[in-house]
Amino acid sequence: MDLTLVLQGLLSGLLFGGVYSLMAVGLTLIFGVMRVVNFAHGDMMVWGMYLSYLLATRAGIDPYLSFVVCAAALFALGLLVQHGLVDRVIDAPHEMQILLMLGVALVLENLALVAFGPEPTRVRSPLGAATLWLGPVFVDIARLVTFVVAVLLTAALSLFLYRTDLGRTIRAAADNTYGALVVGIDVRRVYAVAFGVGAACVGAAGALVSSILPFQPPTGLSLSVTSFNIVIIGGMGSLLGALIGGLLVSVAESLGAVFLKPSLKELVSFSLLIVILLFRPAGLFGKRTS
Question: 19, 20, 41: which is closest to 249 by C-alpha?
Answer without folding.
Answer: 20
